[in-house]
Design goal:
Length: 229
Amino acid sequence: MAIKFLTLFILTLVALVVLYLVAAFFLSRILVPKEPSAQGEVEIYILSNGVHTDLVVPLKTEVFDWNSFISVADTKVPVTEARYVAFGWGDKGFYLETPTWADLKVSTAFKAMFGLSSSAIHATFYQQLQENELCKKILLTKSQYSRLIRHIQQRFQLDAAGSTMPVKTDANYGTNDAFYEAKGSYNLFYTCNTWTNNGLKACGQKASWWTPFDTGILYHYRPAKKAAE
């Protein structure tokens, strides 16, 4: 009886995983088209490390100065010549306790998958970026960029004074990044990449109908020649 129950449990688990992956594949191929708009003038990027995506925006424009919201002094070594800041939202445990996949704990993964832990915003400052298969440039109008700003800011947890809340940690990925307390919980259906994808929707850019993976986003930003193959 116990063996039958265990077998049924394993088969059910495998079926759910397969269903999740199939849904992720097909739903991510459904394109939410870019809205008609004038020629953009604000340069942003989608940046992936092969698993996780960030939304990269100019540190300062006439639309908004991110120095008024976060501080380069929150990094290990204050950044003096940054021109861009990349924002990623995700599970706090993953960010702070899993610098490499070898460090992944079952407890961390379980909490993240089922929304049982808190979240964080990861901000990374850059002097410049270069387009490649994992880094895609997009031009936004000022109005579109304002909507993206709101999407990013809405995930920050603010203190009573309305200020962002830096996470005090030594788990930084380098000397040019910082973590901030964030709202919401990461889960199987709302991942770091889902947040990025929703940001693209918010500012009227090409996006997947739904995706938990970076591939679902980058699929719609392939070079036109490859997309037609």
